[in-house]
Write a structure and sequence with these properties.
The chain is mainly α. Helices cover 81% and strands 0% of the residues. The protein contains 5 helices and no strands.
């Protein structure tokens, strides 16, 4: 396999992974390892899906709060150094939106 094809395949695989999976994974890694780098990654990856959810009618008022909380997570980490609180601030809004979507899918019979 040529190197150019491998680069394209790798780039496509990385871009194809949903941002919420990365956000939740980085948030859990931050909680377990207590390393600040994971919080920065969780906050960064959370913004993409939250921007998408902000454009949907159902979450247009909730998702911007999540974006602000992702930014606040970085500020909490820098000022207080509390990795657990910052990881929770970065991940909880997206987890709450996804949990609400799951509850609605179960209630309406889509799952």
């Amino acid at each position: 396999m040529p190197l150019e094809a491998l680069d394209t395949l790798l780039l496509g695989a990385l871009l194809g992974i949903p941002g919420w999976v990365l956000t939740i994974g980085c948030g859990l890694a931050a909680l377990v390892t207590r390393r600040a780098g994971w919080v920065y990654a969780a906050a960064l990856f959370a913004i993409g899906p939250l921007v998408y959810f902000a454009a949907t009618p159902r979450f247009q008022y909730v998702a911007p709060v999540g974006i602000v909380l992702a930014i606040v997570a970085v500020l909490v980490l820098r000022r207080k150094g509390d990795v657990r609180a910052a990881a929770a601030l970065a991940t909880v809004p997206l987890v709450a939106i996804l949990a609400w979507m799951l509850v609605l899918a179960v209630i309406t019979g889509q799952i």
